[in-house]
Amino acid sequence: MERTVTKLAEGVSLIKGIDFECCIWLVEGREKALLVDTGLGVGDLRGEVEALTDKPVIVANTHGHGDHSGGNYAFDRVYMHPAALPDMKAALEMTEMFASPEELAAIRRRMEERPAEYRFLREGDVIDLGGRRLEIYEIPGHTPGDIALYDREAGLLFSGDSMVKSMDVLLVVPQTVSVEAYARSIRKLAALEGAAGFCSGHDQRIMPRSFLLDCLACAEEILEDRAEMQTVDPRLPGIESCLRAVHGDAAILCLPEKLR
Ligand SMILES: [Zn+2]
Q1: Rounded to whole angstroms, how far apart are CA atoms 111 and 92?
Q2: Cα–Cα distance between 219 and 30 in angstroms, integer?
Q3: N or C end of the chain: smaller count of CB under 10 Å?
Q4: Is there a contact between 245 and 228 (Cβ–Cβ < 8 Å)?
């Protein structure tokens, strides 16, 4: 798979493959580089990353979904929230839809021969890249194992699927916690006043703080019964219909049984 690389801020590059694959972010410090998410696992991500930086690469997953963690197998050590590990174990199911049979066999072989070692991240942990520090925030909502990584100096959040403009915020996947948990998490990020922009799991640009605030307002309106909800087909396996609420630029898909 051909991926494109776009530099979007000082030391921050977006690596993007086919539409369905998440945005993979390469964040460089003075001594180390951090790869935020690893995509579907197709192609030679590790080779592509090593061509972009000569620094040792640390890998972290924003959550365990297969379009974000499918390429973990190519790296020696991966950081994630402990609650993300069960989703990650099912990651190959998503890769199966996009990899050729030969590629899939090679991926399986590599996973068995030399599985990545997992290390856990919790709220308050810091990843220090040398001159660039990323603080970890637990933001359960989309899944229980969602985290955001905050570069306080640059005013940038890396926040996975918790706030996505190019598709609706999905609080309808099997792992979703609740809209209430989601609102609490986004409120926590909104309190980081220096967070001027964020890098999401599926938007190919740095998103403005106003979009974060729209996501929060949308979730709060749902919980306070003030949102105009439409019934829609989420086009996801196993779910025929869900509710959709909009506030400003943000839209949230949710289920009545997963509000609280
Ligand atoms: Zn996801």
Answers
A1: 10
A2: 38
A3: C
A4: yes
pLDDT for res 134:
98
Q: How far is the CA of 30 from the centre of ligand 1 (A)?
A: 30
- CATH number, domain 4-258, options 3.60.15.10, 3.40.50.720, 3.20.20.10, 3.40.50.1820: 3.60.15.10
CA 105/CA 102 separation, integer angstroms: 5
Kindly give the distance from the C-alpha atom of residue 12 to the centroid of ligand 1, in angstroms, as a whole number. 21
The pLDDT value recorded for residue 17 is 87
Give the closest residue to 39 by CA, choosing from 64, 16, 67.
Answer: 67
Cα-to-centroid distance, 62 and ligand 1 (Å): 9
Domain ranges of the chain: 4-258
User: Which is nearest to 178 in space by CA: 141, 143, 138, 146?
Assistant: 141
How many C-beta atoms lie closer than 10 Å to residue 88's C-beta? 22
Using a pLDDT cut of 90, give the percent of the chain over it. 81
**Residue 141: is its pLDDT beyond 90?**
yes
> Residue 171: which H helix or E strand, with range?
strand 169-171
CA separation for the pair 25, 129 (Å, rounded): 14
pTM over 0.90: yes
Among candidate residues 74, 65, 73, 58, the one with its CA nearest the CA of residue 25: 58
CA–CA distance from 151 to each of 25, 55, 235 (Å)? 13, 19, 34
